[in-house]
Amino acid sequence: MKLLEMRHVKKEFEGLQxxxxxxxxxxxxxxxxxxxxxxxGKSTLLRCATMLExxxxxxxxxxxEYAARMQGDKCVYAPKGERKRLHRYFGLVFQNFNLFPHYxxxxxxxxxxxxxxxxxxxxxxxxxxxxxxxxxxxxxxxAYPYQLSGGQQQRVSIxxxxxxQPKILFFDExxxxxxxxxxxxxxxxxxxxxxxxxxMIIVTHxxxxxxxxxxxxxxxxxxxxxxxxxxxxxxxxxxxRVREFIGHLAGK
Length: 252
Hints:
252 residues; alpha/beta; six-stranded mixed beta sheet; 11 strands; 37% helix
């Protein structure tokens, strides 16, 4: 089943075309890594997929339902209530954690469950306790973000996204703000989610990780998808540019 479809997506900022006619679809249980140089449009693609940015043109569907579609030459988004419902299909983990500094770990995870999703406090807390245990953070539920390492903050961010029980999880360079030791800690969590067949789209610079965890890797450059395929296909490609990029980042 296709969880996500993006068709002919275009996006520009101040006359600069950042996404130039991108189409992709994601099947349930699939793990996709998006790689490419800085400025290639990877994060913008994620922001369009999660409706943080509005597309200039194109179509966006979750589980066959339109979040945005073309009407004439305009991209028209679904009504606010409809979009809010579609938001529940996905979770997003940012590179800089985006935790509320004045909230405890527990409140960071449960706040939107209670205030936005209208889930009873008891159930929200039960979900949080279970996820914190799963992510090795049980003893940190009353801590505040400043009392946590970067790796722990990112794991809380992942727990917060998972607490909403999304169908698909987006990661925007989840380890770029972390040192190598903490990076390993966070990648281990994402690998565990992949083993549980969590559908994920991961923008990453970690080549070896992408190779191990992905069903499919997409190489983006200059606002288009230049190449995509299985990890084996990408790592053994004849495409000189992709080989150069992967080799450079993998430290070969």
